[in-house]
Records
---
Amino acid sequence: MTRRYNFCAGPAALPEAVLARAQDELLDYQGRGLSVMEMSHRSNEFVAIAEQTEADLRQLLGIPSNYKVLFLQGGASLQFAMLPMNLLGHGGSGNFIQTGIWGKKALTEAKRLGFRHHVAASSEASGHTKVPAQDALQISTDAAYLHYTSNETIGGLEFDYVPQAQRSDGADVPLVCDMSSNILSGPLDVSQFGVIYAGAQKNIGPAGLTLVVVRDDLLGSAPPTIPSLFDYQQLAEAGSMVNTPPTYAWYLAGLVFQWLKDDIGGLEAMDAINRRKAQKLYAAIDASELYSNPIALANRSRMNVPFVLDDARLDNAFLKEADEAGLLNLKGHRSVGGMRASLYNAVPEEAVDALIAFMADFEQRRG
Ligand code: PMP
């Protein structure tokens, strides 16, 4: 068996130790004689897995007790719709900071459903290369929440600060953050947020699971006309089991959380590794004549590193030779082209070293 280095933006690399443990437990979970996939979600065994997973996540992120943790389906994209359904039940508008494609999708979905919306700031004029500054935010007087995307996975643009949202009357506006592509990459102060959400398939586990962390006071304002599966309050009351949850993905997320705690040593340690990985790749890009990345230094994503070759005719050769060298999935998103190396938690530092060595070699051979 040869496992190669996987730089996919998502579904992304999983820690090898997690896959090995899942393999070990696949047919017979801890002597129970069946797979986790075959268990009732209401069984004592699965309820124990579910509770341990939540407890480990709460410990890793330091989630305060006045927040609920939901394990849902539908991806981050369904949250684009569930958020306004749940948070605008008493009126008001969703305010959005626009820093790229995913933030735009979140706004477009709220718009499509007929909710009031307002662009509080946008980095579009800079080609989404620089995050808007705190003092550029214009919060509307009817703002019920401020939504932003802490890391734009396609553009490779990451916030270097947590926005503060206040209306002109001084009222605090709950902050809602799509953390799909940088959750768990480092420590976080959850108490600054009203809602945090993320699709699992980058730093949490396999696709099919969506994590939502929601502050208690934001529950209970969804209108009764929405499906019960979309109502945070009902989902929270049922422990995310209004219907059958994605049990196996939930279990795998639990293994990833244990790996983060026990093998990595927590989110501070993860943060240090991630910074090192990203810094060395950006340094290699900046030092080269062939590769470039346009993002403002302070906003360069630690998780997704897009770069272009100065001659796009070399792209195919680059990708082919990278693949042959055991470096997978470096092609940029179809909407922007070029390359993208995603350096999520499970991508080991050796993978980044191997990529840098390959890039230098490729450049030298073309030079
Ligand atoms: N938000 C961000 C920042 C993303 O990167 C993605 C997926 N790449 C999404 C939302 C959409 O996630 P999903 O496919 O889980 O709906």
---
Amino acid sequence: DYLRDDDLTQETRDLISSLPSEKGWLVSQMYQFKGFWQTQALLQGILKCQKHFEAKDSDIILVTNPKSGTTWLKALLFALINRHKFPVSSSSSGDHPLLVTNPHLLVPFLEGVYYESPDFNFSELPSPRLMNTHISYLSLPESVKSSSCKIVYCCRNPKDMFVSLWHFGKKLAPEETADYPIEKAVKAFCEGKFIAGPFWDHVLEYWYASRENPNKVLFVTYEDLKKQTGKEITRIAEFLGCGSIGEEEVKDIVRLCSFEHLSKLEVNKEGTLPNGIETKAFFRKGEIGGWRDTLSESLAEEIDRTIDEKFRGSGLEL
Ligand code: A3P
């Protein structure tokens, strides 16, 4: 479990002792590494990933901030790139892997795997390899940047992301969060002091990378995906260069990966991931603007002010 730190190498311990640390929202202790706050476990995963991961030109890396649509994109990308191997059409989808396997088990989480299963052999993944990470652009393994592999980055409206994290945190770390006031969590969020924070640096690094190198980094938003899923799938398919895709096929992928469909599957309602997280924790509401039932006007304004300030001049509106 990425919030527990019981299997650290000496290298990680040495590094950790030199890093700024804070007691955080969601975790008892977190460490600032290259600008972002991490648990010890994730930090170790990131270090190992930086050191050992060798990207291939054909790789596809999905990057997100936590609670920004990772599960959905994992499903969409998996369905898209494997559509010849696993046809998605309604008639033949009876044995599609997404019907019986949670998306997180179909798409390995780089730094999570490097922490939990250091012997995992990435070279055995079928080509094109599809993997995901929360690592910031500047901290990506060198080979990811130097190879021709493709990066799909998805971000989400920060108020919805905060609220999603707030509820997820309560499920994931009930003891840490039980008495944690939401005002304090919003403050931590706006100061960037929470796991994987600050979100704005993460988003902006990939935003600028996508503008500088649009063939390398594709920037998508949860909101666009929600409003025009089919159009976004087509855009992703073009970016990945994975052949022409018919309208019906796109519709089938939209349907297969929709919140309504995936969240009702047995495997996503009843399953548990090897790290102990229940699969249902990844499916809550799946809406745009759902923050309204959790955030007061003044807390929402606090996040808005932060977003306005941090994103001003970037050309990005969230
Ligand atoms: P909410 O908590 O707002 O419902 P991540 O996958 O990055 O952890 O993000 C989880 C968020 O994505 C949750 O948001 C979850 O409900 C939503 N989500 C999961 N699967 C989805 C899907 N197929 N379509 C749309 N949203 C989805």
